[in-house]
Design a protein that fits this description.
By secondary structure, the protein is an alpha/beta fold. Helices cover about 35% and strands about 30% of the residues. The model has no long low-confidence stretch (mean pLDDT about 95). It binds adenosine-5'-triphosphate. This is ABC transporter ATP-binding protein.
């Protein structure tokens, strides 16, 4: 299975963000995506998920045209948005069955490391780390072969960050994952390869030094 973007361009008003972007993701790799604030990382993820229509260019799934309006319903791509999306007044143990009607699938979340500690709580009473971890478990355990993660590590306490990283690593051989976060060291811990969104295009990044050369990081 392969997901391919060809010649994707997108801008808002006069501001070009993506200019003829090419990207291919296999279904057994984790791709880290870096880029300074406002360069268009979330925009790129939203295009891949079908929430935003590119100005031009195409997306291909297994070599076939994958039109924007059909992506969400296809069940091929799951997306963790940057902002939290669960209803605050519902309990964790009520939310899990809403995502997974099947008991075995529910158990993957109920019995994931650490979930028992906050299963009885309302979403609105969870810590930021517990909430983000739960969201990653819910979206990551869906059957979709591709997973887009927009800032899973931001503002998360170390324990839950580690849980999230370990969970993402368990998906490595079964999904294609595109992961963006400014916590670049956390991304580098799980990714197989990395890209930097700069000057409206994607550059391959081998290591931290490339991030310095391309002015995403400073030398100190
Ligand atoms: N729907 C929209 N309408 C107009 N402008 C938008 C829209 N969505 C995003 N933008 C603008 O496009 C630019 C890129 O936004 P985007 O959220 O994709 O950046 P990002 O690389 O994810 O940034 P960050 O690292 O801060 O999360 C920003 O300047 C943003 O204000």
């Amino acid at each position: 299975m392969s997901l391919k973007l060809e010649n994707i361009s997108k801008g808002f008003g006069r501001k070009p963000l993506l200019n003829e972007v090419f990207l291919e993701i296999d279904n057994n790799e984790i791709v880290g995506l870096f880029g300074r604030n406002g360069t268009g990382k979330s925009t790129l993820l939203k295009i891949i998920f079908g929430l935003l229509k590119p100005d031009s260019g195409i997306i291909l799934m297994d070599g076939k045209d994958f039109p924007c309006r059909k992506i969400i319903a296809s069940g091929k791509i799951a997306f963790l948005p940057q902002d939290s999306f669960l209803p605050k007044n519902r309990k964790v143990r009520e939310i899990i069955p809403l995502f997974f009607p099947n008991g075995n699938d529910q158990d993957k979340v109920f019995y994931a490391k650490g979930v028992a500690d906050f299963c009885h709580k309302k979403i609105g009473d969870l810590s930021l780390g517990q909430l983000r971890y739960l969201e990653v478990l819910l979206i990551g355990n869906l059957q979709h072969p591709y997973l887009l993660l927009d800032e899973p590590f931001s503002m998360i306490e170390p324990v839950y960050k580690e849980y999230i990283q370990n969970f993402i690593l368990t998906l490595k051989n079964s999904k294609g994952i595109l992961l963006t976060d400014h916590y670049y060291l956390d991304v580098l811990k799980v990714s197989n390869r990395n890209l930097l969104l700069k000057d409206q295009g994607l550059l391959p990044i081998q290591n931290e030094n490339d991030l310095i050369t391309n002015r995403y990081l400073t030398k100190n």
